[in-house]
Design brief:
This protein is α+β, with helices and mostly antiparallel strands and 458 residues long. It has 13 helices and 19 strands. Strands 12, 13, 14, 15, 16, 17, 18 and 19 form an eight-stranded antiparallel beta sheet that branches. It has a five-stranded antiparallel beta sheet with strand order 5-6-10-8-9. Strands 1-2-4-3 form a four-stranded mixed beta sheet. It is globular and about 65 Å long. The structure holds flavin-adenine dinucleotide.
């Protein structure tokens, strides 16, 4: 076995090998179900380090993984017996409040970005947990509360700096390396190591936001109302639906602990009075919720509201789908499966894919499925490793029951690594052939294959 460490000549960041005391902490991923033992973790501090690490991986022939925030479900930010190019130490967000852009280093989390932009009353669309890496989230799409109005994270990407498989550093935007830029917007980490991103920002500061939860006995009515309300709702309202369980801990009222709920998680970009008005057609006439915790708060507060409930190291097994319509029969299938939830943390979420996301042509970026109405995720989650089997079985059974009502593809960021090529091809649809061509141009030997892999042409 080649000892990689002496070969990383000139590397300025930290090299971590299995012999180091820091190894176990450094190899940990967000999903506690994944336990990979890389041969070397290269914690880069700058682009020069990334170039050194890419050259090392290519020249030694070991498998190479790229790690941003380490949140990926199947743990594609690490690799057994290979090299991890770990970008988590590459931090820094430079906001240009006049141009309304932010340059974001690849190791930033969503929370880093929200924190930096909020000081200027600005934000860019990203996901719902602040500890998620901005890099992995963006490269496969990135949806969140602001997406109905401002699109996916990739729709706000202006340019990216990339280290390619041959060690070259390039810029990608609409004018320079446009094919690469197209592929980066949805094609994941297939084309190179992105070292920084430039995002467009929007005016977002104080929001009227929070969860509203009902007894799951009312879920059929709420899901029907949500389905009908969403196409008419103002795009200032981000709102996802969840089938979940009340956790047996504060801040939840003790009498609700362990009870199954239907949840609407809302984020209105504006004041309380307008937010209440926007929600009236949805909430009017519905049964009284068990709790409605909506209130005014800074945008970063809603972005981190779930952080404490889903700490790192918990077991996760995911399945996703894009959903176009939600007929009553599909709702019934959801409710039958949700009723068997194996743990308090396990969930099903439906995130809206509409508004600004639909206004971009499906060929304009690699992210193809722009005619879906929701991105669905079913996640079996539990802190106890002994529950890994039950949560996996529940997720698969739930998915089998509802998949017939859904589209063939799924959001790659909600896939595990056991779904096969056909699923990826269905996800990228008409864009798959072009993705293969871009991969062939930029990574012909498939150096970057620890991901939802687009293979280069033979
Ligand atoms: C609790 C939780 C909540 C989530 N909520 C949302 C949500 O609301 N919206 C949403 O869209 N997604 C959401 N996700 C999914 C999330 O987008 C993915 O898990 C994503 O892969 C995480 O990115 P990361 O950088 O943290 O992951 P990592 O595990 O570090 O990386 C994942 C993959 O991304 C690629 N990659 C990472 N960094 C780079 C880089 N700099 N250059 C090239 N390739 C790179 C690599 O292929 C890598 O294998 C959520 C995930 C979790 C665990």
């Amino acid at each position: 076995m080649t000892d990689l460490a002496p070969l990383a000549k000139g590397f300025r960041g930290q090299i971590v090998t299995p012999l180091d005391a820091a190894y176990d902490a450094a190899r940990k991923l967000y999903n506690g179900m994944i336990d990979k033992h890389p041969r070397l973790i290269a914690k880069c501090v700058d682009v020069a380090d990334v170039i050194t690490a890419v050259n090392l991986g290519r020249d030694t022939g070991v498998a190479v993984a790229i790690r941003g925030g380490g949140h990926n479900g199947p743990g594609l930010g690490s690799v057994e017996d290979g090299l991890v190019i770990d970008l988590s130490a590459m931090k820094g967000v430079r906001v240009d409040p006049v141009a309304r852009t932010a340059q974001v280093a690849a190791g930033c989390t969503q929370g880093d970005v929200d924190h930096a932009t909020h000081a200027f009353g600005l934000a860019t669309p990203a996901g719902i947990i602040s500890t998620t890496g901005i890099a992995g989230l963006t490269l496969s799409g990135g949806h969140g509360y602001l997406s109905r109005k401002y699109g996916l994270a990739i729709d706000n990407l202006i340019e990216a700096d990339v280290v390619l498989a041959d060690g070259r550093f390039v810029r990608a935007n609409k004018e320079t390396n446009p094919d690469l830029f197209w592929g980066l917007r949805g094609g994941g980490g297939n084309f190179g190591v992105v070292t920084s991103f430039v995002f467009r920002l929007h005016p977002v500061s104080q929001v009227y936001a929070g969860p509203i939860a009902w007894d799951q006995r009312h879920a059929r009515t709420i899901m029907q109302r949500y389905r009908e309300f969403l196409p008419e709702a103002t795009e200032d309202l981000g709102i996802f639906l969840g089938l979940k369980t009340v956790l047996s801990s504060a801040p939840f009222p003790e009498e609700l602990w362990g009870k199954q709920i239907c949840l609407l998680m809302c984020c209105y970009n504006g004041g309380e009075d307008e937010g209440k008005k926007a929600l009236e057609p949805l909430l009017g006439g519905l049964p009284d919720p068990w709790f409605n915790w909506m209130g005014m708060m800074p945008y970063p507060a809603v972005q981190s509201m779930f952080d404490g409930l889903y700490p790192p190291g918990t077991q996760w097994y995911w399945r996703g789908d894009f959903v176009k319509t939600l007929p009553d029969e599909a709702i019934d299938a959801h409710l039958a499966q949700a009723a068997n939830s194996p743990s308090e943390l396990s969930l099903m979420h439906l995130y809206p894919i509409d508004g600004a996301v639909h206004r971009i042509d499906s060929g304009e970026t690699a992210w193809n499925c722009r005619d879906a109405s929701w991105s669905m995720v079913i996640a079996g989650i539990d802190p106890n490793p002994q529950k890994a089997g039950p949560i996996t079985r529940w997720t698969k059974a739930y998915w089998e029951a509802v998949h017939p009502y859904n589209l063939a593809g799924a959001y790659p960021n909600f896939m595990m690594d056991d779904e096969g090529d056909a699923r990826l091809k269905a996800t990228f649809g008409d864009n798959y052939a072009r993705l293969t061509a871009v991969k062939t141009s930029y990574d012909p030997t498939n150096l970057f294959r620890v991901n939802q892999n687009i293979r280069p042409a033979a």
